[in-house]
Each structure stands twice: as structure tokens, then as C-alpha cells.
Amino acid sequence: MARTRWRMGFHLMPPVGWLNDPNGLCQFRGTYHVFHQYSPDWPAPNAPRGWGHFTSEDLVHWRHHGMAIAPDTPEEATGSYSGCAVVMPGAASDGGDRLRLYYTGNVKEPGDFDYIRTGRRATQILIESDDAMSLGSKRVILRNEDYPSNCTCHVRDPKVWRGEGRWWMILGARDTSDRGIILLMSSEDGVAWTVANELRSSEPFGYMWECPDRIVLDGRTYLSFCPQGMEGLPWANGMRDQSGYAPLPEGSDLSTPGVSIDTGAFRRWDAGFDFYAPQTFVDESGRTVLIGWMGMPEAPFESAPDGLPWCHCLTVPRVLTRLDDGAIAQTPVPELERLREAEELLIAPGTMVFSGQRADIELTGIEGPLRLTLDGGLEIAFDGHELSCTFTEGADALGAGRTRRALPLDRMGDLRVLVDGSAVEIFAEGGRAVMSTRWFPVADALSVTIEGTCASARAWRMGDGMTGSVDA
Fold first, then answer.
1. What is the CA radius of gyration of the chain?
2. Which CATH architecture has domain 2-332?
3. What fold characterizes domain 341-462?
4. CB neighbours of 266 closer than 8 A, spacing ≥ 6?
5. For the chain, which terminal residue's Cβ has fewer other Cβ atoms within 10 angstroms, N or C?
6. Are strands 378-382 and 404-408 parallel, antiparallel or unpaired?
7. Which residues form the Glycosyl hydrolase family 32 N-terminal domain (predicted)?
């Protein structure tokens, strides 16, 4: 029963096996596509890692189509790793749009190698499609010898876009001084590429930068990336891998000569336990939408307790907006509200009990400190200075090894908490502060306790957008 309870109704999760990084996010010919890293044979040793594929017409109801890209060529023998999608308007044979998928093929050579400077091949591969379902042949467009000589063998995760009459690609890399960098590539046709720029930070900031992304909001360019080797920083909670963004200097872009990343301006996307490798896309209405992996590459806590046949999920799609101080707010896409069912009475202060473990909870007009507790063991609290997410003493099984996360916050006028089986996402102060965590409740019903004062406390039971999601 717990295995069924921990499945989710509005977070993308694999039918079986392992899921991680979101890849190839796009809205193509009116349909939303979410590809993702996928190992359907997990937990078998050395299970092949490729791309799985979800589609949706409304960002709410989803269908999974199994393995879309398998590591079936010599250039990706160790895995079809992360990448992106680019929509080419009017380029298909029928006059409609055409889709390009770019990704990294990873190869670890057999032998006594360190796999940093020797023994690894990182190729960038292109696939094209007119319908995003029937994929064309694979074409290698970049190999190790095409990268600058100061790069190690770690070069991966292409993000590609078109602008100023050219194609552009950024790649995450590790240089021979063991510092993370971003390579900017340029192309006339999206096939033949040359190095256009290298982006670095003024101070050392991790040994590898993964999953780079370029985001433009209100005319300001941001670089999103995942630095590795961060465990020694005070705010890193001892975790090697982090995920965040930094604004580029006003009036500059990634191609600006001499542009560098200000590490002092780096902000984490999500201060919770489970968030990494986000990717964004701009949909047909012009919204910039982010989806992240609710997992971590190396973590001292569990994401598949009791031998679950599946592991990990993605965040709900989040709309990005730029705030006055340059920070980026994240809020769940409004389409998610279509899954709201019966509204439940919430009393602040007080306790109520939901049937099931799916809920959308909204508090507004919060005055002073506040504490919201789920199932007596997961506390979401604001003390006037910080927002925290804490698995209380005796709740070890609930958090599967998770303990406490916190981030500074001057005020909190509103709070929204999404509970979905084994996923919890927290949005405070209009999405300025965000925290995500997996949890594994055993109660048949969800109890919600509020301590504090607010003008409004509302909650809805949530429906299931994943019903029948597996494509037969």
C-alpha cells in the first residue's frame, strides 16, 4: 500500500526504473514535451541510461512513451546524457515546425584511467524529427578534439538557441585547473560549431559546471548552472552539488568579450533537499517555464526506500518572473489549479485532516511567525528571519534521512505548499523562496496543523494527472 501511496498525481515520475535530469523541454506543434534521463532497468547493475519521454496538451495530464533515445551507438556507450530541444519554425517537410534534439554521448573507455583527463569521450549528438515521436538518425557534431585544449574530458549538457541570425550552444565543462567553466559555441547552421567564448567566475567556484542554461527575463540575461565541488561553503549543507543562477552584467550577454560570472550574485534555485539539473523553455505564450529534477547526484538520504521499483520525480512546471531586485521568482504554472477538487476547511491556528496524500495548500496575509506541520513530522516554519523545512525528531522514516534546510527570508506574506504522494514543494513570498523535498508518509490521510496568524487559509484535494500515463 505504501508503494501505491508514494506514487504521484502531478509530479512526473517513471512507471518503473530511474529518472533524473529533465531534457529537451519544449512546446512543439502545440504539445508540451518533457524528455528526461531514464534507466528503465534500474536497479540492475549498469542499467543503460537514455532519454524517456512525456507529453501533455495542458501541463497537467501526462503520458509517458517509454525510452525515446537509447545508448545504442559507440559514441554513447556509457549513456545518452543530458541535452535540449530547439524548435525550427516551418522547417519540416510538411511546412510545419521541425524539432532538433542535442545531447551528450558519454563513453568511459575500459582501462586504468582517471576519467577526468584520460579515458572519457564526450560527444555532442544531434537528432531531428518532424513529430517529436519518430526520431531521425543520430549525427555526431562535436568530439573531444573540438573543445579548447584547456578542457578536461568533462564537457557536456548542451543548451542551444537561435539569436542574432546565428545558432548558439553552451556546454558545461571542467578545465585542466579543476575549475568549472562554460563554453559558448557558435554556428551558422546548428551543425558545424566553433568556440566563441569561455565564461568563468572571478573566484574559484566548484570544479565542474553542469547543466548550463541561458535565461532572458525583461531584457536581462541570466546564466543557470550546477557547480560541483561546493560542499565546503557555509550554505551548501555539506552537499557537493548545487544548482543556481547568476545575472550577467547589465547590457551584456554570453558572447560579450571578457564577461565573467559574479559568484557573489549566485542564488540557489531551491533551498530544499531535492533539487538539481533544472532546465527552462519558452512556451508558445511567451512564458519562461522551469522544471527541475527532485533528486541529487550524491546524497546522504534515500529516494527509493523499501525497494521501490521506481526512483525520483521532476518538479511541477514553474513560471519564472524577474523581481525588482533582480532575483527570479518561481510559481507553479496556473494550469495546475485545474486538478483542484473539493476545497477543505482550514482554520488558523488549528488542525485538519485530508483524505489521501495530495493537496494544494495556500495561506495569505501571514502576520508574524508561522508554522505549518504535515503529518506531525514535517515542519515548514517562518520565524521572521528565515524559512525552514525540518523533519522533526522521531520522523526519520518520514524523511528517509533528511533533517533540516533553511534560507534567509525577511518577510513572508504568503505560503503555498504542494503535497503529492512522496513529493512536497514549498513556495513562499510570491515564489521568492522555494524549497523542495521528497518524503514518505505512512498515514492514509494527510494532517495539516497551522500555528500562527493569516488572513486566509485554503486547501484543496488534488486530482491525478498521471492516471493512465503509461503509453501502451
1. 22
2. 5 Propeller (2.115)
3. Jelly Rolls (2.60.120)
4. 205, 244, 245, 246
5. C
6. unpaired
7. 11-332
